[in-house]
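Annex B, item 7. Sequence and structure tokens for protein A, then protein B.
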Amino acid sequence: MAAKISPERGISSAWQKLLTVVNNALVYLDVRAAEWVHWCGNFQELLEAGALNVYDIPSGRGGNESETKAVFIVGTLLQSETLDLIQCIVQASDFQHCTILCTVPENVHSFAKHTDQTLDISPFGELSQKLREWMGNMYATVDVHYVPLFPAVVCPGLFITPVFSTFFPLLPSDVPRLQKFLRSMGDKRVFNSLYDFEMSLLPQSLQLKIKMFAFGLNSLFEMLEVNEDCYGVGFLSKVIATELANLPAARMRRKSASSRASLILIDRTLDLVGPSGHSFDTLADKIIQLLPRLAQHNSDVAVDMSPLCSNGSSTPQTVAPGCLAHPRDPPTQALLCSMITKRQKESLMDLSRHLQEALTRESMTEKSQRMPSKISAEQLKLMSEHFRGQPKCLKRHGALLQLVRATIMALKSEHTSQMDHLQAIEKGLILQIGEHGAQSALSQVMTALQADNQQKFVDVEHVLLVLIYLYSLTGQECYNSPIEEEQIKNMMIESLLSGDLKCSSESFLGPELLEKTVRSRISDAFEKVRGVNLARDELQMFRDVFQQGTALKPSHYQPLVKQIIDGVFSPESPELPDVEFKSHGFKDLIKTGFSLFMNVSKPRPNDHPLLVLFVVGGITCSEVYQIREALAAYHPNTQLLIGSTRLLKADDLFNLIFLQDNLFPALH
């Protein structure tokens, strides 16, 4: 069998290049670059490579007289807020050597400024001049370079893109706003669907985000040394696939690529059932759902390690939180892979076995007896407590113990009962739809809103997520009559104003509960929920994710990603109308356009030895499990690489849909 194609070697090479420039320098990172370093490198290695210190750019902290060199690693455009922060740091310091490494290439900066590099000074050249002015020395050493920091491996076969963790597709409910934007630009045409809009009609900030993302994907395929066919499922994915297919840098790269691959991009908005729900196939999903995010991070979690410290030796301020990312510890990374790709019971057995082996190695316990058939949080807690107050052992097995502590926290979480309650509502909706049709499901949500203390909703966020779950599950079929929807809206507004329903996201309703604001925000939220309702309307083959029950199998949710894998690899699916191929050459045009007249077969995603399946907008660990399980059923020779912008939990989905402007995305 051919050697596995993987981005690890390319990521390692990018990291080594970073290490060569940090000697004797203060290193500054923005949050995007810092998250990439967290998954791909190690802050300790930056210091060992000679970095004097590592700061975040927003800290604004300048250097002292002896600190004369600075390296800025930036995960977005070098403009506006980011550039202002760099200017403040440089002007407050005595730097004689400044290096800026930016994940956005120079020609995208040109597009941002509407300039042509051939006619004007290049954006990086202009920035170099500005830096020298800020440094007060026109002869100072200044370097500004593009550095692609795109994929970050979570575990073998799965990667995320921290620099694009907030990138999220549009919904059909964005069409009126997009229409209004174009009217303001003098375009009077009428557009009825997202698919009516070309890339050039989108707001510039969204065009820039798409171009930046396409360059990121190009750098991934450069690492993999492959020539890729591009496919898109959903509006944004098709726009990105077209951009990547026709990117001049990608066309040049494809000429010398030694192997072939297929890329399928999928819009997250086409199926929001899994990420808005609370049923977990894997232990990793439970951990990500129940533990708080690591500060300033969008995929990792914060793990409380203080129970393994000696009594009285720690406070919350003195013990740094643990996490899931351990790129320099292959056994722990493999264990995380088990937690993502296996059922919870198997993952707990793997975790317990590793912990037992660590205890035996440290002579903290006798050689392991037979493993119990069921591993509990209490057993893991008792085993891990052998390490308490043993700093050397803690250091040796720190990565493993962070995964163990994350598991204990998830299994003993105080939020478990709330998750169980929401899961029961979701299962009830599936049952209701299966027995009485989609039209009856909204009454179930009303019942939960009116329920007694044990069964009622606590947060408005949970109500909206259940509605997202329901509307995404059933599509247009859910919508019965405007009257029921209006009743739910009014019940939510009254419950919020009376205090029966809480809101933990201050930016959703504002610091004060004003009736006008509450009504406006709930009304806007329902527009977005209706957008979810219509998201799959343009699909033919993958329009339904709800499977009606039979005598042998009850009604159930059929994830879109699983359906796509089945469609690609099943010999019974000769046509894939929803998986749109984007040609990047004359040969492809012949294949797609003239296949009726010539003896050529249309391209298919399983034509090549590598398939990259990328979900734009986040993926859950359960979906990773489902994708791998679906692929295994076909025993193909195809290698699968799964990618997404982030590891997703329900709270993230609330922020991405209701609190973030995806039509005019922030670029700072």
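Protein B:
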Amino acid sequence: MSKKVFSSGGTGGYHLGGAGKSISKVAKPEDAVPHNGVPASKLKQHCLKEGVLFEDPDFPAVDASLFFSKKPPRPFVWKRPQEIVADPRMFVGGASRFDITQGMLGDCWLLAAVAALCQYEGLLFQVVPKSQPLSSKDKDYCGLVTFRFWQYGRWEEVVVDDRLPTYNNRLVFLHSAQNNEFWSALLEKAYAKLCGSYEALKGGQTSEAMEDFTGGVTETFNMAKAPPNFFKLLTKAQDRQSLMCCSIEAKPNEIEAKLDNGLIKGHAYTITAVSKVKANTRKGPVEVELIRIRNPWGNEREWTGAWSDESDEWKMLSEEEKSNIGLNYDDDGEFWMSFADFSKNYTRVEVCMLSPDSAGESDRKRWEMQINQGSWQSHVSAGGCRNFPDTFYLNPQYIVKLEDPDDDDEVDNCTIVLGLIQKGRRKQKRVGAQNLTIGFSIYKLEDDVDQYMDNDRLSKDYFLYHKSFARSENFVNAREVTGRFSLPPGEYAILPSTFKNNEEGDFIFRMFSEKAHGSSCMDTQTQIEYKPKKVSATDNAKFDEKFKGFFEKVAGSDGEIDAFELQRILNQAFKAEIEGKELSLEACRSMVAMVDVDRSGRLEYPEFRELWTTIMEWKNNFKTYDKDNSGDMNAVELRGALAKLGFKLSTPVLSSLTLRYANRKGNINFDDFLQICCRIKSTFESYLGYQGKSFSLDDYIMSAVYT
């Protein structure tokens, strides 16, 4: 292949004359949605046809892809595998946890998860598809490599070019023990692209990567509070091919502090085996619970206590027993220790269940899963925790109906595992974003719930007079918070929230259960309840007596008024409401458009009379819901005011309105309120007017633009 390269010529995405297919819900990794719009197959086809090597425009070989807060410590050179070694391959003799060697980046959490993934070949090849050539000796080589990651409810196909940062012709970051094997280095690069840069991978929890590799859900255990049967739980997790990692809690100044026993604080380890062995002691044979752990640093540091490499304890095992557990004494960063010593030294264990299907034999149990997407928006749906009683109820609310108890539950309860994941925070590190502190609360709905409903949601008073039934153990600044609960049958409301109010972010909320249970978002359903009021001839006569002469004076000889003239009239009429300011011309244009049936841009007297009656009703409505007489209305007051007028809006629609019209404090003034009412009324009437009829693009644009 000739030494040419292909690039789209920009960093905004691939441009090959067509976008990739967008799939809203993907169940299998092999059906992954292209991360940047264009399928890998199409990119590869283009490169091979043109005889060029792929250069990734969205993750270029520049310093900004490495670090966002500083320059590289030394000049790195980006090289393709075939420029580093003579015979580059993705895999050499398959993949192994021993392939993984950490580079200069502090991402041991990622390496620990990769090592866990390596234990199950099928899972690894879901993330790293096989048969991807890395040398121009192969006719299918074009410098493009594909990976698949689970991202917030769907699988995504992530494409990178095969250029890797090097120094003195050696890979700088994660690499394999064999210098011609490149799957681990390229996997790290693809994950760095997903997160925004290599630097974005510094510091994290293994649960994050384990879930992105599998789509599973991770339960985190504090060893000080671990259940009595925790070893059995780990054994069962191993049988189900769960990925498992562990760590030792550390203070900020103790991160990666080396202990005398060979362990490291604040460092991520992989649990690679859980086993019981029969030891021949002086008192006779006894069963010993052992656990095998790997340090991502490789041969640099291992446990030195009981059951460590070549310790005397191994003399108590037969050769057959040693062979059964795969014992070796290599200096490879992997070691055994008793479960008792493990429990004394390690403080945190993360177990990632692979999927809603719990593995097993004939007694296999199936997990049911439901996923909800949501967001916290300042002044709309970011209510904070219970410490903020005036806003807590604003958080997204989900209702779960538990009806069918677990088959093997002694008290006929229902088991659910809840997982709350905040989206995209690691990628926002470049702009200084950190994980929000998040958690969730669970409320059991009793017979009195109906009296606390407000616009199809639980009102503030409900949470003032009811305690939570259960909640996440803590609010933490992790990507995900999970919890396992055994709840009596009944209806429950679950509120995910940030710890502080008015903190913004997107999230997904997953529920796993042994039996299928119904769940949905508790929210106002957007409904059209607005009905024009009929005005009697008597009322029209009274109106004409008061206003017709005034209208004719302003309108002049043509008998019509435009938005400029309407602005002058309303500024006189609404002096109190606008407090010496002026109603905007934009608001007046919206009012004219709302009643301008013939689209002349001007109002005749009957149209003016209809408009005046309507906006007087809106003015009174604004005063009623502006309870503190501030001249502004918050999002909650806005929702109530619009519902009273017959415009019941869901939270997403309310969110759109506040984003469009609210000030920095999230409030709506009178002028903006009039614009909102005009646009919603016009939109509703357009929707009703075109039901059952053809609605051309011209119709849609005119309807949207004119109001």
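Comment on protein B: The chain is about 30% helix and 20% strand.
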